[in-house]
Each structure stands twice: as structure tokens, then as C-alpha cells.
């Protein structure tokens, strides 16, 4: 059997330090008989030398267009916008299956080049569950941003820009420091606590010293009674991590926050789910996504706020949270992808790849019509 060759491309999105393969997963693939080419990439959280040390071959940055066309190219984020035909097989997130802006021109590039797209968002197991996702570290990082925002607020300041942490240890140390050694005494509520993002948020709070009894963990059973929920007013940080799939009553409302008055304990809302523009958003108290340079937005309570001297409430609504912890997020994500990658040599029969290819072909047919090709 011939060796399966896989090519890790560089990422071109600004600030993207995560990677679809890590030195750990690349080594496991090499041990299984793969040949791995890795494009040199200064913005990747892993040094090129870490890949070289485990047996990968380093190649020039952004040289994948010249790779042999039978070598699959793996990356994370969408390729820069272009009309160039794509003759290779690409394994990546492409954000073009749900009618997103420019979806048909992305798929048209594959049609013109004869290439194939395996969109990682749609790699699923036999039960339909995604084989890998960044959720855990989204929740972990969201909870971290919430804790940092609370600490800043408690010392009368606004949270400044967030920079990706080198690793989890550095993040935990930084947060514990701003709380004077431990966040013991802080009270939090995580909704969607049984999911990927929710379990990450709960773990972060544990690791920074929040007492177990002060981490309220809610999921479907606890919200079945229907919101809005008074319990949200009575914690310091509320983190929303639900997967929104239908219309549900709001969890929290502006009127409720105003009615809670000066005694309100709630200081920070972190919306990890970030269904900001979804008409069913259960946190309808803000309307913008925040960013690493500007991680919080104050809740606008209008003149009521100063007339009644209401305490500040900050919202964190960053939609690319895992980038705050690129090393661990990449490791966990890539490890989840590994069993599927190991089946790449059997991609004409392995369920995860045949299903993804079937979906690609359906979407490509739609794009051909939409583009009039
Ligand atoms: N902000 C970011 O950077 C970022 C990154 C990754 C994922 N996300 C988003 O986070 C959300 C959650 O993703 P996930 O991978 O954790 O999903 P998941 O399916 O693993 O978990 C979702 C959880 O929400 C619970 N849930 C659903 N509806 C609920 C309700 N009405 N009340 C209480 N609990 C409810 C489910 O039971 C489940 O436990 C998704 O919308 C995803 O797009 C955001």
C-alpha cells in the first residue's frame, strides 16, 4: 500500500495561532505510516522545529498550491478569497454550506479545479455527532474572560485587551493573580453545563479556585421551568453555553436587570453561544460581538442606570474564544480529528469521509446552479 501523504498548510487569518495538526498528532500519523509535510508558519503556536523533531518535512509557507494534486491539504480556517480553481482535496472549515456570504463562489473554485472539500464542521460519526469541535476551550476561555472582567470591575477598571496565552498554566496563574491568589468566594452559573463549552467553563472556574458549591451547573432539566431566571441575578458571573436549536423563553431580560436595582450581584454575562443575531437569542440584552482588543461591552440601561445608580454589567460575546488558548485548543481538536485522519487512506469507504463527500457534492451542485456554471 502506498504511503498516505498529508500537507499541513499555514493559516492566513490574522491572529489565528491554532493548528489542525499538532506535533503530537503528526507523530501519531507518522507512526501509522503517513508522510506529513508542514508549511513553515510563524504565527502558528507550535514552532516549526517541533514538527520537524517528530519527523515532518518542513516546506515553504503557503506553498500548498504547488503540492502534488493527489496530496490532501489540511488547515483550519477558510482560504483567502480568490477565483483560482482548487484541484486538491482540502480538509478545513469552509463556512460555505449554510448560505454564508460568498458560499457559491467558494464551492465554484472546487468545481472548476476538480478538487474536493471535506468541511471539518460536517465530519460526523455514525450517530451524526461531530467528530471534533473547539467547544471545550471556547467555554474554558469564555469563563476566563468573564473572571478577568469581574476582577477588573471589582477594582473599578474596565478589562483591557486580551492576548492569547502561551498555555493553560499561564492563563490560570494570571487569573488567580488578579484575584489575589484564588477566586474563592466568586459565585457563577453555567447554563449548558453538560455540553462541550459548558464543561470547559465549569473546569476553568474549578481551576481558578471557585468553590464547587458556588458553581451552579444548569442544563435542560433546570431551564425546563422557563425563563427569565432570578437565579442569574444572584451570581457574579453568568455563562451561557447552550446549543440553541429552537425558540425558548429568554434566560435574562433588561427589565429584570433594572428591577433587580442596586442590590444586583450579577456583574458579568459571558455569552459563549454567541447567538447574537439569532431571533431566538435567549440573552437579548446586547447586540454586538466583542473582540480580543475590546473584550467587553457595558450593558446599556439608558438613563435608568445613572438615575438609580445601578451597578455596571459587562457582557463578553467573543465568537472565536478558543484562540485565547491556541496550544491546548489545537491539541484537543486535533486529537478528536485523529481517528478520522487515520482512516484517510480508506476514504472511499470510511463512513466519516463518504458522508462528508456526499454532502460536499450536494452543496457543490447547488453552487453550480447559483453561479450559472
Ligand atoms: N464563542 C465561541 O468562540 C464558540 C466556540 C465554539 C462553540 N460555540 C458555540 O457554543 C454553543 C454550544 O456548543 P457545544 O459544542 O458546547 O454544544 P453541545 O451540544 O456540546 O452542548 C450544548 C449543551 O446545551 C444544552 N442545552 C441546549 N438547550 C438548552 C436549554 N434550553 N437549556 C439548558 N441547556 C440547554 C444541551 O443539553 C447541551 O448540554 C454552540 O452554539 C456553538 O456554536 C461558540
TrEMBL record:
<dbReference type="InterPro" id="IPR007698">
    <property type="entry name" value="AlaDH/PNT_NAD(H)-bd"/>
</dbReference>
<dbReference type="GO" id="GO:0019878">
    <property type="term" value="P:lysine biosynthetic process via aminoadipic acid"/>
</dbReference>
<feature type="binding site">
    <location>
        <begin position="318"/>
        <end position="321"/>
    </location>
    <ligand>
        <name>NAD(+)</name>
    </ligand>
</feature>
<dbReference type="GO" id="GO:0004754">
    <property type="term" value="F:saccharopine dehydrogenase (NAD+, L-lysine-forming) activity"/>
</dbReference>
<dbReference type="InterPro" id="IPR051168">
    <property type="entry name" value="AASS"/>
</dbReference>
<feature type="binding site">
    <location>
        <position position="223"/>
    </location>
    <ligand>
        <name>NAD(+)</name>
    </ligand>
</feature>
<feature type="disulfide bond">
    <location>
        <begin position="197"/>
        <end position="241"/>
    </location>
</feature>
<dbReference type="GO" id="GO:0005737">
    <property type="term" value="C:cytoplasm"/>
</dbReference>
<comment type="similarity">
    <text>Belongs to the AlaDH/PNT family.</text>
</comment>
<protein>
    <recommendedName>
        <fullName>Saccharopine dehydrogenase [NAD(+), L-lysine-forming]</fullName>
        <ecNumber>1.5.1.7</ecNumber>
    </recommendedName>
</protein>
<keyword id="KW-0457">Lysine biosynthesis</keyword>
<feature type="domain" description="Alanine dehydrogenase/pyridine nucleotide transhydrogenase N-terminal">
    <location>
        <begin position="7"/>
        <end position="141"/>
    </location>
</feature>
<dbReference type="InterPro" id="IPR027281">
    <property type="entry name" value="Lys1"/>
</dbReference>
<keyword id="KW-0520">NAD</keyword>
<keyword id="KW-1015">Disulfide bond</keyword>
<keyword id="KW-0560">Oxidoreductase</keyword>
<comment type="pathway">
    <text>Amino-acid biosynthesis; L-lysine biosynthesis via AAA pathway; L-lysine from L-alpha-aminoadipate (fungal route): step 3/3.</text>
</comment>
<feature type="binding site">
    <location>
        <position position="129"/>
    </location>
    <ligand>
        <name>NAD(+)</name>
    </ligand>
</feature>
<dbReference type="InterPro" id="IPR036291">
    <property type="entry name" value="NAD(P)-bd_dom_sf"/>
</dbReference>
<feature type="binding site">
    <location>
        <begin position="195"/>
        <end position="196"/>
    </location>
    <ligand>
        <name>NAD(+)</name>
    </ligand>
</feature>
<comment type="subunit">
    <text>Monomer.</text>
</comment>
<dbReference type="Pfam" id="PF05222">
    <property type="entry name" value="AlaDh_PNT_N"/>
</dbReference>
<feature type="active site" description="Proton donor">
    <location>
        <position position="95"/>
    </location>
</feature>
<feature type="active site" description="Proton acceptor">
    <location>
        <position position="77"/>
    </location>
</feature>
<keyword id="KW-0028">Amino-acid biosynthesis</keyword>
<dbReference type="InterPro" id="IPR007886">
    <property type="entry name" value="AlaDH/PNT_N"/>
</dbReference>
<feature type="binding site">
    <location>
        <position position="219"/>
    </location>
    <ligand>
        <name>NAD(+)</name>
    </ligand>
</feature>
<feature type="binding site">
    <location>
        <position position="272"/>
    </location>
    <ligand>
        <name>NAD(+)</name>
    </ligand>
</feature>
<feature type="binding site">
    <location>
        <position position="243"/>
    </location>
    <ligand>
        <name>NAD(+)</name>
    </ligand>
</feature>
<feature type="domain" description="Alanine dehydrogenase/pyridine nucleotide transhydrogenase NAD(H)-binding">
    <location>
        <begin position="172"/>
        <end position="303"/>
    </location>
</feature>
